[in-house]
Amino acid sequence: MLLEDARNSVVDVADLNQLKHELNRLQPVDVGDYITQLPEKQRAIAFRLLNKSQAIDVFEYLPPEVQEELIDSLHDAQVVQLVEEMSPDDRAELFDELPAKVVKRLLQQLSTEQRQATATLLGYPEGTAGRVMTTEYVWLREGLTIGEALSKIRRQDEDKETIYYAYVTDDNRKLVRVVSLRQLLFTFPDVLIREIASDRVIKVQTETPQEEVARIMKRYDLIAIPVVDREERLVGIITIDDVIDILEEEATEDIQKLAGVSGGDDGALAPPLMTIRKRLPWLLAIMALYIGASSAIAPFQPVIASVPLLAVIMPLFSNTGGTVGVQALTVTIRGLGIGEVTPKDTLKILKKELTAGLGTALALGTTMVLLSMIWASPSERWVGVIAGMVMATNTLVAVTLGTFLPMGLKRLKLDPALISGPLVTTMLDAIGFMIFLSLISFALNVLHLQH
Amino acid sequence: MLLEDARNSVVDVADLNQLKHELNRLQPVDVGDYITQLPEKQRAIAFRLLNKSQAIDVFEYLPPEVQEELIDSLHDAQVVQLVEEMSPDDRAELFDELPAKVVKRLLQQLSTEQRQATATLLGYPEGTAGRVMTTEYVWLREGLTIGEALSKIRRQDEDKETIYYAYVTDDNRKLVRVVSLRQLLFTFPDVLIREIASDRVIKVQTETPQEEVARIMKRYDLIAIPVVDREERLVGIITIDDVIDILEEEATEDIQKLAGVSGGDDGALAPPLMTIRKRLPWLLAIMALYIGASSAIAPFQPVIASVPLLAVIMPLFSNTGGTVGVQALTVTIRGLGIGEVTPKDTLKILKKELTAGLGTALALGTTMVLLSMIWASPSERWVGVIAGMVMATNTLVAVTLGTFLPMGLKRLKLDPALISGPLVTTMLDAIGFMIFLSLISFALNVLHLQH
Predict the structure, then answer these.
(1) CB of A158 within 8 Å of any CB in chain B?
(2) Do B291 and A186 touch (CB under 8 A)?
(3) Are residues B89 and B193 in the same domain?
(4) In chain B, is it the N or the C terminus that has fewer CB atoms within a 10 Å radius of its CB?
(5) How much is the average pLDDT of B427-450?
(6) What are the residue ranges in chain A where pLDDT is below 70?
(7) Residue A267 resides in a domain
(8) Bridge partner list, A204
C-alpha cells in the first residue's frame, strides 16, 4: 500500500517541475522502480531530473540492464561520477553484467582507490564472501582511546556502509577485535579500545560461500560481519541487507529446483526463451528416464489387456506415491537449506519418516482397497487388494528415497536440490509399476485369480 | 565449521570448572544449542553454571519447550528474573507456548512496566506487527539538541534492542521524525533534532501482517522499523533479526505447501504424528479427487483393453504434464511470495508462460511421437501421434492452470499456496486422460484406425 501510493503519486504528476520535486523527495528505491517501469526512451529524461546525491542513490537500485542503458545515454563525465560513488560491492555486480569493453573504459576513469577496490572484489569467485563484501568499513588501531576512536569515526567520510561496528586491527592489519558503536558511546572517552573491544570476533574468509555467511550472520544476529584473507587480515565487511538478498535467492533456488526448474534466474517475468532453457531439460530428462522404465513395463501389456482396471488404478497409485516422496524430499531439502539438519541426522530423520510413513502407508493402503470396491467388479476386487498392498509399500519406498537421496548428495558435498521432485516421482513410478504389475501378473498366471 | 568447533569444544570438556568457564565465554546461541542437545536431566545443571548475564542471553535462544522445562526446574525467584529481563517480543513468544496457569503466575510477578509491555503485545493477533514488535526503543522529543539527544541515549539503559535509529515524537507521542545514530554523531551538538531528523518516516501499523513488514524493511534496507497505532502514536519497533526469521518462515511455508505439506511446523525433525497430520490430508484429498476422475475414466476400460499400449504411455504423459504445471505454479507462487509480481501482472505472466509453453509443447509433443515409434508396433503408431498432440495441448493447459490458479487466489486475497503441486498434478491428469482417451476412443470407433 505504502509502495503503491508512492508510485502512483509519481505517475500522476503532470508538471515537470513538480515531477522533479517529487523524484528528489521520494525514497531512492521507489524512484528506481518508477524509472524502470517507464518506456525506454523516457528513462534517461527522468533520471536527469535527479539531483546529484539522489541520482547516485537511485542508480544503485536500478536493475543492471537499466543501468547499462543509462550508461549508454548519459555523458561520460556523469557516468564516471555515478560509478565512482557506487559502493564497491554494487559496482562489482554491475561490472559483471556490462560488456568487457565498457568495464575496461570505466575502470580506467575511476580513482585509483575505487579501481583497486573493484578489481579486488572482481578477483574473487562468484558466490563467495570476497565477491559480495564491501571494502568500505570502519577500522581502528588497538592503541586508540574511545574518544580518539569516536573522533576518527566522525572524520571518516559518510560513505561507510555501516558504522555500527568498528573493527580493530593490529600493526599487520590482522583483525583482532570488534567493538560496537553502542559500546563506544556507553564508555568514558579516555578508556582504551582494547579494554572494551571483544576478542571473540565472528568472521568469515574471503572464500566462504555466501550461503554460509548468511547462515552465520542469522545465527549470531549480526548486522555486519568482517571478511578476512588467508593471513587473517581484514579485507572487507558484509552487511545485513546483502544477507537478506542471499537468503531469499537461496530459498528461491531451492523452491525452483524442487519443481524441476534449474538455476535461479527464472523469475515470473523472465523472457520465454530463458524459461524454456531452465525447464525443458528436466522435462526431457523425465521422458528419457521413462524410456528405461517403459521397456520394463511394456512386456506387461498383455496383463493390462486382460485387467484394464489397472489403467484406471495406476495413475492414482503413481500420483499418491509421487506426492509422498516429494513431501519427504521437500521437508528434507528445506531442513538442509536452513541448517536445521545435517547429513549426520540422516538416521534420525529416516526413523521419523518411516514411523510417520508407516501410519500413512496403512491409511493409504486401506483407502485404496476401499476405493477399489467402488471401481472394481466383484471378480476384480483382488486387484484392489494387491493395489492397496503395493501402495503401502510404495509409501515406505517414497519416504526412504525422499530422505536418503538429498542427504546422500549433501554428504557427497553436492547440492541436495539436484534431486528434483519430478525425478523422485519418476523413480517412484517406475519402482511402483514394476512391483505392481509383477504381482498382478503372478496372481494371474500362477494363482489363476482371474477366471 | 565455526559452529561445529564451538559445540565440540564444549562437549569435550570433562572438568566442571572448565565447562563453566567455557559456557560463560561462548556465544549465547552456541550455549543454547549445547544445552538443548543435552539429555533432559542435565539441562538445568548446565544452565545453572551460567553467570547471570549469560543466563539471560542464553535463555532467549532456547526453544520454548526447553524454556518451559527450565521454568519448572529452577527456583521461582530465578525464573522471574530471567523472564523479567527477556525482551518483550521474546517473552510474548514464550508466553504463547506456556500453559495459561504458568503465564498468569509469571505475569503477576513481573514488574509493572514489563507486565504492561507483555500484555500489550499479547493483545495483538498472531502474525501482525504488533505481536512481533518490541517495546524497547529509543525515542526523543522534537525540541532537543543533538547533544541532549546523545546524552539521553547514553542515559537510557543498554537494553534497547537497537539504538541505531532514534524516533522523534511530538507532545502527543505521535511519531513525526526519525534520525539515525550516524546522523547524530556526524552533526554538531548544538543543532536541534528537528533540523536534521527526516520527516519521511517509513513505518507500519500494529495490524500490518508480518510478511508485509518484512517486505518493506527489505525494500528500504532498514535495520529497524517503527510501529504505530491507529492514532499514529509510536508503540514499538521491529528489528532486522526478526525480519530475517519471518522471511525464512514464509519461504519454508511456501516450499512445503507447494509439495502438499500444510502449515509451517513440519520441520525435518518434527514428531511423526505431526508429520502425518500435516501431510495425510493432502494425500487423501488427492485420492478423493481421483474418485471423481476415475468415474470418468472407468468407462474407457474397453478402449484400454484393446490398446494396452495406453497403459504404458499414460504415466509418462501424466508425469510430464504434471511437471510442466508444477514448474509454472512454483515460479508464480514464489514470484508472488517475494513481491516480484502482483495479480495485476496476470496477463503479462500468462502471455510469457504461453509463449514459453508453446516452445515446450512442440518439443515434448515431437519427442512423444518419436518415443512411441520405439514402443509401439507399426499398427499402433497412430496412438503415438495422438499422444503427442494431447501432450502438447496438455502442456498449454498446464502452464495456464499453473499461472491462473495462484493468481486468482491472490486476487481473492487468499493464500496462493493453497494450490499445491499435487492438486495441480491431479487436475492435469484428469483433464489429460479424458482428452486422450476420448480421442483414442474416437479414433478406434469412428475412424476404425485399429485393424
Answers:
(1) yes
(2) no
(3) no
(4) C
(5) 82
(6) 1-14, 157-161, 263-266, 447-451
(7) no
(8) A227
